[in-house]
Amino acid sequence: MSERKDGPSRRKVLKGAAAGLVTAGVAPTIFTSSAHAFRNEPTGDTVTLGFNVPQTGSYADEGADELRAYQLAVEHLNGEGDGGMLNTMQPSALKGEGILGKKVAYVTGDTQTKSDAARASAKRMIEKDGALMISGGSSSGVAIAVQGLCQEMGTIFMAGLTHSNDTTGKDKRRYGFRHFFNAYMSGAALGPVLGQEYGKDRRAYHLTADYTWGWTQEESMINSTEALGWETAETVKTPVGAGDFSQYITPVLNSGADVLILNHYGRDMVNSLTQAIQFGLKDRQSNGKDFQIVVPLFSRLMAQGAGENIKGILGSTNWNWSLQDAGSQAFVKSFGAKYGFPPSMAAHTCYVQTLLYADACERAGTFDPIQVIKALEGHKFDGMGNGPTEYRAEDHQCFKDVLVVRGNENPTSQFDLLNVVQQVPRSQVEYDASIFGGDLGPYEV
Amino acid sequence: MNKIFSMSRKDVLTFVIFSAVVLLMPIWLQPFGAAYPDLMQKFAIFGILAIGFNVLFGLTGYLSFGHAAFLGVGSYTAVWTFKLFSMNPIPALILAVIMAGLFALAIGYVSLRRSGIYFSILTLAFAQMSYNLAYSVLTPITNGETGLQLELQDPRVIDSAFGSTSDGSLPVSNLFGLVDMNGIPGFYFCAVFLIIGFFITQRIFASPFGMMLRAIKSNQTRMNYTGFNTRPYTLTAFVISGMFAGLAGGLMAVTDPLAGAERMQWTASGEIVLMTILGGVGTLIGPVVGAWLIKYFENIFSSFNESVLHNLFAFLPDGVEKFVVEITSMFVGEGWHLTLGLIFMLVVTFLPGGMMEGFRRIGSLFNRDGGDKAKPNEKTPAPAPAE
Fold first, then answer.
1. N or C: where does chain B have the smaller number of CB atoms within 10 Å of the terminal CB?
2. Among B276, B309, B307, B280, which residue's Cα sits nearest to residue B291?
3. Contact predicate A161/A345, CB 8 Å
4. How confident is the model at residue B3, as a pLDDT?
5. Check: CATH 3.30.930.10 for A184-317?
6. What's residue B15's pLDDT?
7. CB of B296 within 8 Å of any CB in chain A?
8. Is residue B308's pLDDT more than 90?
9. Which helix (H) or strand (E) holds A293?
10. How many Å apart are CA B275 and CA B270, to the nearest integer?
11. How many distinct structural domains can be found in chain B?
């Protein structure tokens, strides 16, 4: 090593890794841990959070926006900037002095939207960088994989954008928490609106991303549309990141269906929607009705990617920057001031998750994950952009209102792409925690 | 029996040094910021993969572009063994190696009818087929994109027969309930296999069988004219290297019980080829060095973000700092592929023998006659196998 001639620069990098080395040295003692010791207990004057987002792959746009939100959240927690939602969050134990008096530092990783890569980078952040909490994920497959890892490691996982029912359903974990809504809620919110708009006599054709999110999204949409009286013509699974969907769209034309439901997200959705419109699906008549396209999970970033094609299309979102409540306004303002454009819903959920974690540590008075988990379970809060919200203790899923949105026909700016059709109240999208099975597992790991 | 273990002094020395380097990883990797269990486990596992690949590519010159398939088969087999039988890594690894070996036998039997580029394309096609099977067609077995994971309800017949009880959390792979296969013990478990694997390849390199494989590489046509049937030899080499890959895949599942289809993708196969070429084809240690280098880049370089860079260049004046950070940030973080590509290009252009050639050149600078004479048989550049 001494023969390396990289000069002082390398040394500086290594200094940053010094914290990790301490952890590596401490690691063996973890196997003999006593009740109060926990992994990566912060000893210095900083606390490290790990942000694990897709920086490459189909969901890279979301990942980039998530990372911006995390940086903003860290600034606000450390008392820099205008404080954003720290001022609107209720109840709040946050004072803008870091967490429990320790300055917040962060490390980042690239999930590549692959379970293996995501787990490797999460492990790096926990084992080397000493991250106390992992957040992120823009794909449910990845979120579930990382959540499982965090349970093994005894590190709290604050899920970012993950919409599959499984994340807080059959694959829920004691150390995993999700603020984002899920496929069941999308279906429950979207169903009645679809009934009003398109009638009760429709035949739906599903194109579905072939992984956990797509499967549960499709299932939830079928349940809610069949409850309306719709028929399901066919369901076709498409590989994630397919790029070209024309081979999947051609059969739709002759299937006798009059609604196409695209259970796609990210660039996949941009591509499949664009191609569906190029095939003239929207101008078609089928069974004597206008052909319709539905995108159950919408985001402004995708709307931006799809451009004109998004106009008039119905979907649901967790949050939209045009909301007028104080929390949303404060967040949009500070995000806009820093980056020059409004945040996406992925950014919103990641920002909120970071604040919620920090707040839970403050309320618990410790970084001990077991106490923090208990502080989060059943926690009720408001002023974070979704109205009154509750972290349900049984499955670590947040319950709040869901937005049904439509692609804006006459956008006033390049960001004004989604109109809120209806704010569906929490009561309509709520379900019993036991319907998806699964088990949270123990507090002690 | 004695003959197997009789090694030349040079081989013994290499083996001892290699073992020491591997076992002391937690110490000498510290200054590089890489001494954390997960990355060291990856170093050991991909080292196994690369030396196995080298038995095929380095000795026979047959360039397989589908080795990731065997890695994936190994992983899936191991996870299924965990789910069905026991969390003990030993049966999982045995089955993983056997399954990967059978797979390699089948694929090799067909692919080895051709050589050169046709062989590469055939293996690539088989690997892509396996990937697509795992990704969508065989979803009930592989759980598709989501990846195969352990579940609480798994039968684990052997474990439950021995009365192990669940506390509601997912079990961790463990050696007879004594040592959990994660963290540092997990690394040493993998490291032992890497050292055993290295020993085996060392013996293969020094054996008449290895000589035969080298002969195939230098001129297969001539071998055939002299009445030699080369197919059994190449097939054996292919199966051996497939078993190494299966072992690596099994170990991946042991240290982290999850198997995803992306392990079988062609990019993963390409990575193995990169590792071997970067390190030095046909050398004993080269592929391992290449594997370590690539994994280091993937895990450490990709984690540098702008704030790290700002700290790094904080000593520069403000304007310059911003400029330097702007430039360098293209090469780290999500841009680590770019850096790797550049290095690969430089190595292939200036050091066709890989990193090992670089080390040897440095060595010969200090030791004018010793350096070149030390490894005469590795000097020859790899000729393409005759079609």
1. N
2. B276
3. yes
4. 59
5. no
6. 94
7. no
8. no
9. strand A292-297
10. 9
11. 1
Q: Write out residues 43-72 of B within 8 Å (CB-CB) of A.
A: none
Angstrom distance (rounded) from CA A119 to CA A125: 10
Burial A120-146 (b: 16+ CB within 10 A, else e): bbbbbbbbbbbbbbbbbbbbbbbbbbb
What mean pLDDT comes out for the span A162-168?
A: 92
Contact call for residues A362 and A300 (beta carbons, < 8 A): no
Residue A289 CA to residue A80 CA, distance in Å, equals: 55
- Altogether, the residues listed in chain A come to a count of 445
- Say which DSSP state B252 is in: H
- Cβ of A27 within 8 Å of Cβ of B169? The answer is no
Record: fold of A20-27+41-181+322-400 = Rossmann fold (3.40.50)
The mean pLDDT value for B236-250 works out to: 96
ipTM: 0.79
Tokens 């989604």: give the residue.
Answer: A418
pLDDT (0 to 100) of residue A132 = 94
The candidate with the shortest Cα–Cα distance to A237, out of A258, A216, A259, is A216
What does each C-alpha distance from B5 to B202, B203, B206, B241 come to in angstroms? Answer: 11, 8, 11, 21
Phi-psi region of A141 (alpha: psi -120 to 50; beta: other; left: phi over 0): alpha
Could you report the per-residue pLDDT of A17-67, keeping only the tens digit for each?
Answer: 444 444 444 444 444 444 468 888 888 899 999 999 988 777 888 899 999
pLDDT at B387 over 60: no
Label residue B168 left, alpha or beta by phi (over 0 means left) and psi (-120 to 50 means alpha).
Answer: left
Q: Which two tokens stand for residue B176?
A: 């007879």
Count the neighbouring beta carbons within 10 Å of the beta carbon of residue A228. 17
Reported as a single tens digit per residue, the pLDDT across A271-322 is 999 999 998 888 888 888 889 999 999 888 888 888 888 888 999 999 999 8
> Which amino acid is residue B369, in one-letter code?
D
Looking at residue A434, the DSSP 8-state letter turns out to be: G
Q: In this complex, is the C-beta atom of B28 within 8 Å of any C-beta atom belonging to chain A?
A: yes
- Mean per-residue pLDDT, B99-125: 93
Measured between CB atoms, which of A114, A128, A149 is closest to B260? Answer: A114
Residue B369's pLDDT band (cuts 50, 70, 90): low
Q: Is residue B148 one of the residues assigned to a domain?
A: yes
Chosen from A1, A2, A13 to mutate, greatest number of chain B CBs within 10 A: A13
Q: What are phi and psi of A194, to 5 degrees?
A: -60, -40
Token code pair at residue B252: 């991946």
More confident residue, A59 or A72: A72
Cβ distance of B37 and A27 shorter than 8 Å: yes
Pairwise CB contact (< 8 Å): B303 & A109: yes
Does some domain include residue B37?
yes
To the nearest whole number, what is the mean pLDDT of chain A?
Answer: 87
Q: Would the CB atoms of B149 and A145 count as touching at under 8 Å?
A: yes
Tell me, yes or no, if B35 comes closer than 8 A to chain A by beta carbon: yes
Average pLDDT over residues A412-416: 85
- Where are the domain boundaries for CATH 3.40.50.2300 in chain A? 20-27+41-181+322-400, 184-317
Residue B87 pLDDT: 87
Contacts of A444 by beta carbon, 8 Å cutoff, 6+ apart:
A370
The answer, for B267 touching chain A at a CB cutoff of 8 Å, is no
DSSP characters over B39-106? HHHHHHHHHHHHHHHHHHHHHH----S-HHHHHHHHHHHHHHHHHHT-S-HHHHHHHHHHHHHHHHHH
Would you say residue B371 has pLDDT above 50? no
Strand order across the beta sheet in which A292-297 lies: A231-238, A203-209, A259-263, A292-297, A314-317, A402-407, A418-424
- Is the minimum CB–CB distance between A17 and chain B shorter than 8 Å? yes
Residue bearing the bigger pLDDT, A240 or A25:
A240
Identify the band that residue B339 occupies on the pLDDT scale cut at 50, 70 and 90. Answer: confident
Alpha-carbon span B7 to B19, nearest angstrom: 15
Domain boundaries, position B117: 2-267
